[in-house]
Design a protein that fits this description.
The structure is a homodimer of 888-residue chains.
Chain A (H helix, E strand, L loop, with lengths): L5 E3 L8 H17 L6 E4 L1 H9 L8 H16 L2 E2 L5 E2 L1 E7 L9 E5 L5 H9 L2 H18 L5 H15 L9 H19 L7 H15 L3 H10 L7 E7 L10 E6 L11 E6 L5 H4 L5 E2 L3 H4 L1 H18 L3 E8 L2 E9 L4 H13 L5 H7 L2 H4 L15 E4 L1 E4 L2 E7 L2 H9 L4 E5 L7 H6 L2 E4 L7 H9 L3 E3 L5 E3 L4 E4 L2 E4 L3 E5 L4 E4 L11 H13 L3 E5 L3 H9 L5 E5 L1 H5 L4 H9 L3 H26 L3 E5 L12 H13 L4 H17 L11 H6 L1 H22 L4 E6 L5 H21 L6 E7 L2 H5 L1 H4 L5 E4 L1 H9 L3 H14 L13 H18 L4 E4 L7 H10 L3 E4 L4 H15 L8
Parallel strand pairs in A: 3-4, 15-16, 16-17, 17-18, 24-25, 24-31, 25-26, 26-27, 27-28, 28-29, 29-30, 30-31
Antiparallel strand pairs in A: 1-2, 2-7, 5-6, 5-7, 8-9, 8-11, 9-10, 11-12, 13-23, 14-18, 15-22, 19-20, 20-21, 22-23
Helix pairs in contact in A: 4-5, 5-7, 6-7, 13-14, 13-19, 14-19, 19-35, 20-23, 22-23, 23-27, 24-25, 27-28, 34-35
Chain lengths: 888, 888
């Protein structure tokens, strides 16, 4: 016997998601739980993979197995595929291991042809219904399987409607629908050169192949890139006997969540439509009804449904996201899966389920996606202020966003990539818009509900969304939308508030979010579990205070170059750089000293005795100087237009100095400790400012600052030895002068591959190391971030050459390997050396988990990412204990 | 008993160079061989190190031990230091482990004061001699120990000479010399505030301390940097009883080599002066006599000397470099050491000594400094052509050099660092000129012999030198020199030929050197010993042929970008880059294809079946485009001066494309395989050109080229997987079309740290790896070569932060570590993978030896370096067998 490619629902279970896909595995699970699902079977993901690997050919044996399970299905239902009297109709749906809503293809009503349509008419006693199903099938089959442009069918419908003099599709008569069926078949033949396949078994094979192929389609690939899903998984195909929600007012279809996926509140949450089929609810074409209203309209179905929902939640110990259809009052479940949710909902559900005794504290911590937590910490509108609201829609995904209005996904993608903040404004979004949604700050639709495509996708991405704001009239052609008297053109700035559903003209200043008690509970539980410290990267007292509110246990990176960049200081900094002697340079540094000291006093006070790691000046000096090309163009302009010679001379003097400091590759040039070694007076000034500030704060507050001085870009132990000597000399002098016995530590960044492989020697002169994984990524991969992102790195991501952006998620195999080498070498030589990370990776969940596994003592990240890092650090511990994070 | 700091000559041996310095160890060795040396003792290098470490304080016990050994010396000589009747006079000389000629200080005639000078007068019966010795001592002591400006003494002598109405120093009367002694003491007191120390024991302590300090002097430090000598060794101090070469015509002093150090010929080679002392010979103040002439003038001394020389060579089994003095006909050896020699001499001596049965073949191979071999391979003047020779001096160091005339070392150093080729022209050089000599292409002196400072140093450095060209009249003040009617100003270009001693006005085209049979013998012996292959880096058939002459066993790196840069091709390359579609780009590539194919055919033919590794296009595209700033200035100029709008538009179009390709850090940008992945048509064209060329050459010559295609800048295995697929597709197509079964291999550069640490995975898709250690050094160290050399790296070298330039000698601890990691990982996965190096390190001896130790299969270097690499690869094997290279 060959490989098994087909499983009946009775043969599957929820543990078989890899083989049967999420949908198939859960249909099997529900069937086995006694929950009503239509009869059907699942073709495995392996069949899909083999189909692709073998040049789009069905694997041997698949055909026979489909025949076998189809025969069994016909037996169970008592119907036969293509039967002219009692035809079996099936849906053919994709279903991958990880949910990819709307990304792949579905065909409904399969099995209809010119004979079986009559059987359907007699089965249902409704000829109009039967022909409507037939034309829908041909339309969907044509579009999905035979790849005919969908608009051609829509145009044919319009022609038919006009001919019949009616306004809506459902007013078309059976005769009109028959004509439409004929017209559709003609379109199909004209466009593809092949006639519509009337053999239902051939229909089935073609549909299965189309679903297999949709795994490699552009939309699906884009989605997988964004969600980091492997290309190797393949999709399963579910063949399920049709049930009809469009057989009258006691039939219908709907989607629901077992709790509110936006807020997490335990309540009835969903939408339904009576006399509707399939995608009608999420497509947003008809106005949906709230599920709460079903209790009155269809009490029996409502009771059955809520019973099933309760059963599912108890069984899965999770909030479930379901699809259902009821046919003449009988309920069928078409799908269940763990529901996607906002971060706020995730937090509330985790805390509530712990309170309800459903899950443990560790599971609660494991349940919240640390990456998603970020959205809770994004800025929002100030709830205490009044705004001039021009429209209100559904609060589909919380948080606020400000950006330029754009009307199509391509523009959103292009401008977003170019660094513009844009808001995508659409009537409704579809899976075709995914690339624009990824790049937009938020989305505003004039149509669609809480479960519409835009709403679901935005919540998953943690982006603000306002949906169904139906006061808005969009004219894509004129690139504008209007609300009453307001006209908003493409490029105008608006603010959307996904928390309230409000739309505001212009940019509004956003305020940090409130952090509620559920949030506090989760991160507090995380703190009990995690073993790594979490610090923050902060250059100002304001950032330092914010980070402390978020639970930062110290500053892991305080950059000093931003202090040099301040408008009132830049002239002095330039004066210092232009100085022709050490003496002149010293004079400029003298002026900077009290300013720097003030900066540090503020930060020490804000951190109130917690450790503060201050990095001495790092960037190349020419970053403080004017642009060379601009200077040369200005000089040429002055020369050609008879400008004053004095001005020309002055500019040429500056140009000469800029030229002498200009570098081919500034990233690999005179920066970091190479500055401090060649011009020690700069570092001496900084160290003096740091220690004088520490002494002053200590005397003033009695709370001794924990000073950690960090030398950047060390590659050779000898560099650090000399910089340590310089630092110790200055510190000792300041402390002796102030009769202070303040302690301080000295360490270095590990941000060059050479530093990583010689970390043992370097550790001789260091009390701590902080891995600068941003620069370490640049040098290890040979990727200049400025030149990679938006250029070849973007290409690499799109083409799947790299799985994720190494500047966001640490490159474990390359950069991670060097970190591990350095950890091993330095701990062997100096077991008590303190090791941390201060690149942006310190605030990205997968990277934080790597840091834990690598044995680092702490991570440091931007203030808003601190809670995320606390959570991720705890989840790293739980993963070691194999309490894995179960994602929605 | 404390540590032993002082050794009598009888207590030492030549194996104690680390402790006693080279000079002290060899004095001891000679004494123990029964060769006449003056009595004396040596203070250890440890004493010097402890003196420095303890803030310039003598270590405990040193004083007592000096007293003890001094007393013994007084006993042995029957004289007493400072004795008014029979005074002992001593010399105090430095002597480090490695010879540093002239770099540290010496004091002669120590022990004289107002009393003992009379004892010396009565001992010698020559008052004039005694007072001349006294004034020389004060002068030297003042300059060296008390650090008084030497010119002050010279001025006083001039005054005295004028007063006496004489022309030369030696015409001064005893009374005149007494006045000079008084004048010198006054100078000393005035300049230092201290009186001349009349206590000889105090004189001795001060002189020892001065020698200790001279270890850390600027000249010595510069010298050590250049020769890679550790700062931690310290110098020994030799205290030796004076013998006098200036006691009449039967006294004298000289220097000699046991063979000719310039040619290697076994002959009498040296200079001497009668009635002269100490440094007079090498200082070049008086015209020296050829040693051969001594046979007639002083047959007994000559016989003794040649006897000693023979004994020394037999004992040391090496060419020796000796200093001697004879006092009233009695010979004393003052020093012996292995003699520095030219590369030509080293080769001849090694081959001769093997023929003479003195050393083994392996020792002969070990004896030739591979680094020095380079000078034999440098261009020289065409010996068959006639040149307009303006002057002829001694052929002091072979090879020819062309450069601008400069008259002082500072200028030579400055211009040399700035990349100018300069010839340092001096009356004579001194150790103060060392920094200028390092940077100059060659040196020309109007004075001094074959053993003068300029000659010795230039030979050691392998730089051409013409010395003692006494037709040349130098006026430093007017910055020019004259020869008869010729006036040569500073900045004028001259050519010097150190092989013949000729000086030529203007630049002369140089030709490659002849390689003689001794040279061929040594590298042929090396080939028998070495296990690593040696290939060459060659981009043209001419280079390929030259490299084969030098013994290259294949091409390890054939760069293709130079082919793109050729004048007639650049417009097509620009056309390709400016192309807005893949189609337009293809059209330009179509034009380049036959040109590239022609290039490769030439190279394959030149290599005649040896392997040829061709690297596909590597540099960033904008390297082929105009400079952005220049373009913008041109546009501004056109705008301001009413230039044609069409021209402005055209330039702005180019500027826009340049801007879009411009990168912050091109080294880390879109280059290497990142080009091939984004624009596969470029690599496809190159692969097609390579394979078509290989097929054509195979059919034409019957000699199948060994094609190796190399992908640059791979960081991810997936990059190589895709590029392998592309390459294989094109190759298969070409081979199928030509019905050829040519074999080819595919590999990659390992030049990114990520590639090194993931080499195991990358090896899945590679038949070979070539370590691109140039770029690997840039990324591992974070050193942009363009921005490091002449800037911070130069500073690092000067300040001793790095011991050698990592772009010349491989950074074993950093870059080397990554190479080792990659070798291990790739060999574990693919034991038969071929591994090589193609950075410039492949032609540098220490790096070649590292490559051998790391287990690489071959190195590849520029054609002229191939023999050097062959030799170094053999020496690496000998070092493993502990047949160490014994350097001069």
């Amino acid at each position: 016997m060959g490989k098994k490619y087909v499983y009946d629902f009775s043969e599957g279970s929820r543990d078989m998601k890899g083989l049967l896909g999420g949908k198939g595995a859960n249909l099997a699970e529900m069937a086995n739980l006694g929950i009503p699902v239509p009869e059907g079977f699942t073709i495995t993901t392996e069949a899909c993979i083999e189909y692709g690997n073998d040049g789009n050919r069905f694997p041997d044996g698949l055909d026979d197995q489909v025949n076998e399970y189809l025969a069994a299905l016909e037996d169970k239902t008592g119907k036969k595929l293509g039967d002219p009297d009692n035809p079996l109709l099936v849906s053919v749906r994709s279903g991958a291991k990880f949910s990819m809503p709307g990304m792949m293809d579905t065909v409904l009503n399969l099995g209809l042809n010119d004979e079986s349509v009559n059987g359907l008419a007699s089965q249902t006693g409704d000829e109009r219904f039967a022909y409507d199903a037939y034309r829908r099938f041909i339309q969907m089959f044509g579009k999905v399987v035979m790849e005919v442009e969908g608009q051609l069918f829509e145009d044919a419908i319009t022609v038919q409607r006009e001919k019949a003099g009616v306004q809506f599709d459902n007013e078309l008569s059976p005769a009109g629908l028959k004509e439409l069926v004929a017209a559709f078949k003609q379109i199909l033949e004209k466009e593809t050169g092949r006639s519509f396949p009337s053999d239902p078994r051939e229909q089935l094979d073609l549909a299965i192949a189309a679903v297999f192929r949709s795994w490699g389609g552009a939309r699906a690939v884009t989605y997988r890139r964004h969600y980091n899903i492997s290309d190797d998984l393949g999709t399963a195909v579910n063949v399920v006997s049709m049930v009809f929600g469009n057989m009258g007012e006691d039939s219908g279809t709907g989607v629901a969540f077992t709790r509110n996926p936006s807020t997490g509140v335990k309540e009835i949450f969903g939408d339904y439509l009576t006399n509707a089929q399939g995608e009608d609810v999420v497509a947003g074409i008809r106005k949906t009804k709230k599920l709460a209203d079903m209790q009155q309209e269809l009490p029996k179905v409502f009771k059955d449904l809520t019973g099933v929902m309760q059963k599912l939640e108890q069984h899965y110990r999770e909030m479930e996201d379901i699809e259902f259809t009821f046919e003449k009052g009988k309920l069928y479940m078409l799908q269940t899966r763990d529901g996607k949710r906002t971060a706020a909902a995730a937090v509330k559900i985790a805390v509530d389920m712990f309170s309800e005794g459903i899950i443990s504290k560790e599971e609660a911590v494991a349940r919240v996606d640390a990456g998603q937590l970020d959205q809770l910490l994004h800025p929002m509108l100030d709830p205490t202020r009044k705004y001039d609201i021009i429209a209100t829609g559904l609060n589909a995904s919380p948080g606020a966003a400000v950006g330029k209005v754009v009307f199509d996904a391509d523009t959103a993608a292009a401008q977003g990539k170019a660094g513009e903040a844009v808001i995508l404004v659409r009537w409704e979004t579809s899976p075709d818009d995914i690339h624009g949604l990824i790049q937009a700050q938020g989305v505003l639709t004039s149509h669609g509900g809480m479960t519409s495509h835009a709403a679901v996708v935005a919540r998953g991405m943690g982006k603000p969304a306002v949906c169904g704001a139906d006061q808005i009239v969009i004219s894509e052609e004129e690139r504008q939308f209007t609300i009453d008297e307001h006209v908003v053109d493409e490029g105008d700035i608006i603010t959307i508030d996904g928390t309230t559903g409000n739309v505001i003209l212009g940019a509004v200043e956003l305020v940090p979010p409130q952090i509620n008690e559920n949030f506090q509970a989760i991160v507090a539980w995380a703190d009990e579990i995690r073993t790594m410290g979490v610090r923050t990267n902060a250059d100002t007292p304001e950032d330092a205070e914010k980070a402390r509110e978020f639970g930062a246990e110290g500053i892991g990176l305080c950059r000093t170059e931003h202090m040099f960049m301040a408008t009132e200081r830049l002239p002095i900094v330039r004066e210092m750089i232009m100085a022709s002697s050490a003496q002149d340079r010293a004079a400029s540094l003298e002026k900077l000293l009290p300013m720097q000291q003030g900066d540090f006093e503020g930060i020490f006070e804000a951190m109130d005795g917690l450790p503060v790691t201050i990095r001495l000046l790092d960037p190349p000096l020419h970053e403080f100087l004017p642009d060379y090309t601009e200077l040369m163009v200005e000089i040429e302009h002055l020369k050609c237009t008879g400008g004053s010679q004095a001005e020309i001379d002055e500019k040429e003097k500056v140009a000469a100095r800029v030229r002498s400091l200009k570098e081919m590759n500034p990233m690999l040039g005179t920066r970091g400790c190479r500055l401090g070694i060649q011009w020690p007076e700069i570092y001496e000034m900084q160290v003096r400012a740091i220690m004088q500030a520490a002494v002053a704060v200590d005397k003033r507050s009695g709370q001794a600052p924990k000073v950690e001085i960090m030398i950047p870009l060390v590659g050779f132990a000898e560099e650090l030895r000399r910089m340590r000597e310089l630092t110790v000399n200055v510190c000792d002098e300041v402390l002796a002068g102030a009769a202070s016995s303040l302690e301080y530590r000295l360490g270095t960044m590990i941000e060059l591959p050479r530093a990583a492989v010689t970390a043992g020697e370097i550790s001789d002169y260091a009390d701590f190391f902080s891995f600068g994984t941003n620069d370490l990524t640049q040098t290890t991969l040979g990727f200049s971030r400025d030149d990679a992102e938006g250029k070849f790195l973007t290409y690499y991501l799109e083409e799947g050459l790299v799985k994720s952006n190494p500047f966001e998620t640490i490159d474990v195999d390359g950069v991670g390997k060097l970190v591990e080498i350095a950890v091993k070498a330095s701990r062997e030589k100096k077991p008590d050396i303190k090791l941390g990370v201060c690149g942006e990776h310190g605030g990205e969940p997968a990277s934080v988990k790597f840091c834990h596994r690598a044995g680092l003592n702490y991570v440091s990240c931007s203030p808003y990412r601190v809670p995320l890092a606390r959570l991720a650090a705890a989840q790293a511990v739980l993963e070691e204990k194999e309490i894995a994070f179960t994602t929605a």
